[in-house]
Design brief:
The complex is a heterodimer of chains A (201) and B (327). By secondary structure, chain A is mainly α. Chain A is built from seven helices and no strands. Chain B has twelve helices and 14 strands. Classes of the chains: A mainly alpha (201), B alpha/beta (327).
């Protein structure tokens, strides 16, 4: 496998995503909402009747951290479905197999193009989330709660795995459908049991 | 030097030239089936280096399937094919074939969000062209096609003709020996078609082998050295002139004041031939017009017919095509 070809395919997809506002918004919006919205919940809860007790706050913060796993599994849907099904629908995928690039290189390049931005957006959102939470809880806890081992495991293992799983499921679905929205719907249906399980947890 | 001897020398040079050129595309009994449907059956053809080969046929005749097989995009059901020395269908050779061929699909397949330059640069990188080669070739072709000033505009803002030119340039970015063009002038206006045709003629001067799928018979007649007519099976192959000669023959049209049975009978007596009556015209099949036309005119005059004009019917490639496809 020629990794240079893989990177060429991936960087071309990056260039396209930066020009597609719908994809950019969907990748940026979720991490931004979670990273700002969840600290706001803590902030407003603290303002009411003495705030959240420390015993309840710590499990809540860990539970909030799992939203980034959901994010990592959701964000690649927009990119991967466009990258494969979108190109198939726009017929721009047709000349690509006529080049010396193998199918494996094309798929890996496209997977990478969906995986990396999703993970970067997740990490970016997570950094903002941790900074806000530490700022809000330092006075109550007396120490910086984040980063901790839970967040470490989430960021270095669970989120990348969830992202990878989502990308690969999307690749499989994309091979069988010809419409971007259908691919996204299938992918979200596939992910929803995982997401509900994480939310319940 | 007499005319005869100079013509002989020209013929010898032409033959020597033809003998020297190796065949670049070779297909032997190439067949493709999709389930029970046979798309291409027992296709045997050879295209010489530097030739522009026109592949004609109605919709669904198997032209695109043939090109897709030759470009190693789909597998063959049976038979074999070679591009240069590389065998189509062999996975190692497939990569080599893709390096020496350029392919323009029916749908241009450009990235609308990327600029013209970036579209070409992307493909140049996949073909492992150096940065310098990519820059040089992109500049050369875009200037040739009048798109250099628009190189930084998104391909999505281009007209159909501009997109088609850009897609042809994409197929040429790695300087391929063999170029497969699948209906390059489809849905283009006459001016854009002419630009694309002129561009193909420029490429022909560079001695590239071009395999051209087309519905435009006049285009094939103007551009192609040889044509093949396909309707699942290859119906005919040869130069447009040879196809016309072998499949159409010669026809003489005699315009008369009036046509009557006596005139028709008189013409038939000159020799067994097919005669078609169109108004006051007789369209007569002849094998040797120079020898037979005076006899025909004499026979008509002998029974009182008054000849106004005698002309020769020159069949177009379209006539030959329709005769073959309809039969």
């Amino acid at each position: 496998m020629d990794l240079q070809n893989v990177w060429t395919v991936a960087t071309k997809d990056f260039s396209i995503f930066t020009k597609k506002k719908s994809i950019m918004y969907s990748v940026i919006l979720f991490p931004l909402l979670v990273s700002v919205g969840l600290p706001l919940v803590i902030h407003f809860a603290n303002m009411k009747s003495g705030g959240i007790p420390t015993a309840a706050l710590l499990p809540l913060l860990n539970a909030f951290a799992f939203f980034f796993v959901i994010g990592a599994a959701t964000l690649p849907v927009a990119i991967a479905s466009y990258s494969l099904v979108g190109e198939k629908a726009e017929k721009s995928l047709e000349p690509l197999p006529a080049t010396p690039v193998t199918d494996g290189e094309i798929l890996l390049g496209k997977s990478l193009a969906a995986f990396l931005p999703s993970l970067v957006a997740t990490y970016g959102g997570c950094a903002i989330f941790m900074a806000f939470i530490d700022n809000l809880t330092f006075s109550q806890l007396g120490y910086l709660y984040f980063p901790n081992w839970t967040m470490g495991v989430i960021l270095l293992a669970v989120a990348p795995l969830a992202c990878l799983l989502s990308v690969e499921v999307n690749v499989i679905i994309s091979a069988r459908v010809n419409d971007v929205r259908t691919a996204q719907q299938f992918e979200r249906n596939h992910d929803s049991p995982v997401r509900s399980h994480l939310c319940r947890g | 030097m007499t005319d005869d001897s100079s013509r002989l020398i020209e013929d010898i040079i032409e033959i020597a030239h033809a003998v020297r050129r190796p065949s670049v595309i070779d297909a032997e009994n190439l067949t493709k089936k999709f389930g029970n449907l046979t798309a291409v059956e027992d296709l045997t053809l050879h295209v010489d280096e530097g030739d522009v080969f026109g592949f004609l046929g109605p919709n669904g005749a198997g032209k695109t399937t043939t090109v897709r097989m030759l470009c190693c995009l789909i597998s063959r059901t049976s038979g074999k094919a070679k591009i240069g020395d590389q065998e189509v269908g062999n996975s190692t050779d497939s990569q080599k074939i893709r390096r020496i061929t350029g392919y323009l699909p029916e749908n241009v397949g450009l990235y609308d969000n990327l600029s013209a330059y970036k579209n070409l640069d992307f493909y140049g990188r996949l073909y492992k062209c150096t940065k310098e080669q990519r820059r040089e070739r992109i500049e050369y072709f875009l200037k040739m096609l009048g798109l250099w000033d628009k190189r930084n505009l998104s391909a999505g803002t281009f007209s159909k003709g501009m997109k088609q030119k850009l897609a042809i340039t994409r197929a040429l970015i790695h300087d391929p020996k063999v170029l497969f063009l699948d209906d390059p002038t489809a849905s283009l206006d006459p001016e854009a078609s002419k630009t694309v045709r002129d561009f193909i003629l420029e490429l022909k001067k560079e001695r590239r082998t071009i395999f051209l799928n087309t519905h435009h018979l006049d285009e094939a007649e103007k551009i192609c050295d040889r044509v093949g007519i396909l309707k699942t099976k290859l119906l005919a192959v040869g130069t447009p002139e040879k196809l016309r000669e072998s499949l159409w023959g010669s026809k003489t049209v005699v315009q008369l004041e009036h046509v009557n049975d006596a005139i028709v009978a008189a013409v038939k007596r000159v020799g067994p031939r097919n005669i078609e009556i169109v108004g006051n015209k007789l369209v007569i099949d002849v094998s040797n017009p120079e020898k037979e036309n005076p006899d025909i005119v004499a026979a008509i005059s002998a029974v009182g017919g008054r000849v106004q004009f005698v002309t020769e019917v020159t069949p177009t490639l379209e006539d030959v095509y329709l005769k073959l496809v309809r039969s």
